[in-house]
Amino acid sequence: MKTKISTLLGHYSVQFLCRVILGGLFIYASLDKIAHPHDFAKIVYDYRLLPDIAIYWVAVILPWFEMICGLLLVSGLMIRTPSILLSLMLLVFIAAMGLNALRGLDIACGCFTTSQDGTQSLFISILWDILFLIPGLIIIFFHKERIKSTK
Predict the structure, then answer these.
(1) 47-64 residues labelled b (16+ CB within 10 A) or e (exposed)
(2) Half-sphere exposure of 107 (CA within 13 A, CB side)
(3) Minimal CA–CA distance to 124: which of 147, 106, 149, 141?
(4) Per-residue model confidence as pLDDT tens digits over 120-130
(5) pTM of the entire structure?
(6) Fewest C-beta atoms under 10 Å: which of 29, 59, 86, 101?
(7) CA dihedral 139, 43, 48, 24 (to 10 degrees)
(8) Given a cut of 90, is residue 116 above it in pLDDT?
(9) Nearest-CA neighbor of 25 among 100, 117, 120, 132?
């Protein structure tokens, strides 16, 4: 028996909106990082979580991964897999920011810009990422695969 809420959250319009929100956020978030990989590498370094050898590769590959997953999600070419990957990335980002907030580090989030000017609190960034996680979870748990007819 389906509940009204699961029917609503599984509705095509809600799913489409969630895809556009989550995919669009990651497409937008990737643009400045792709354009300025050196500046993004500085932000990744500031997190103090990765070995030095991995920082450059993460700074170069991660934004393209965000872009590709976002495009797949918005276009509808793939839905569940990019949603899972982007949601997992958000969980990793939340954990990384939480750890650094507990350490007392005042660092740039690196979420939407590679600029380190006017950085907001990591706690605020964590709250934003938790909100961004909601559309991904809605897609993961309520998306219905469309079966194409062979007529």
Answers:
(1) beeeeeeebbebbeebbe
(2) 24
(3) 106
(4) 788 899 999 99
(5) 0.89
(6) 101
(7) 0
(8) no
(9) 132
Taking only the tens place, the pLDDT of each residue in 50-81 is 999 999 999 999 999 999 999 999 999 999 99
Residue 136: how many CB atoms within 10 A of its CB? 27
| Residue whose tokens read 């809600």 | 14
Written as six digits, the tokens of 72 are 């797949």
Q: How confident is the model at residue 113 (pLDDT cuts 50, 70, 90)?
A: confident
Largest CA distance in the chain: 62
* Torsion sign across C-alpha atoms 57, 76, 140, 133: positive
